[in-house]
Specification:
about 250 residues, alpha+beta, SH3 type barrels, five-stranded antiparallel β-sheet, 5 helices, 12 strands, globular, binds biotin, ATP-binding, nucleotide-binding, ATP binding, EC 6.3.4.15
Amino acid sequence: QAGLKTKKIGQRIEYLEQCASTQIVAHQLAQEGAPDGTAVISELQTEGRGRLMRKWDSAKGQGIWMSIILRPELPPHKSPQFTLVAAVAIVRAIQSVTGLDASIKWPNDILFGTKKATGILTELQSDADGIQALIIGIGVNVNQEREDFDAEVQDIATSLRLESGQPVNRRKLVQEILHCLEIYTDMYIEEGFAPLKELWEGHSATIGKAVRARMSRETLEGIAEGITEDGVLQLRTADGKVHGIYSADIELK
Ligand code: BTN
């Protein structure tokens, strides 16, 4: 924690050598009443998980595998935007530590070109009284070489080391991510989504591009025009109609 510039996020850090998934540990801690801003970090995850029930490759000591517990006092419909806020925070943190400019693919993949360097998974913990906590899972590929990735993701994954040509200090990057998360989540809570929407769009790899959106029932193709105040992607199809996309896999064409 030495060198940490935050007041809340990361003031309590659970540091583990190994666990199944930091998401599982964070859910457990949140249930036991862990305070707002608690972070769980693990060197190795044996069952790292991604969005849409996918597996997340989380090799030992080479990335940042971390989950943050947040307890914002906001109505439930304002929670999904935290994923977008986290993406902005991580892109900014990567920029300040490595000088690299990453971009965000809606909703929250962080890319270099078409290759993914970071994934974010936001889960809610709720009970009969409402949402008790948000668990924001962040996986950053930091020091992997190409052969460190599982064969099936080698062509679609990258790391900060591969992009910058040199190893990156993980401790510094964790501290900067926590710092940026605090800045931007506070901004969202105090000023609403408008300033964040602008920042998000500024880093976006999706807006203005032709994309294919695969949803559970249908696939739509069109131009991604922007996001709404609720973080919904606006897709204009060839017939001129604008569709609101809440959840999809986006492919840049
Ligand atoms: C995605 O892009 O699908 C999201 C990946 C999220 C991975 C992180 S690593 C830390 C945390 N623990 C997990 O099991 N998953 C998230």
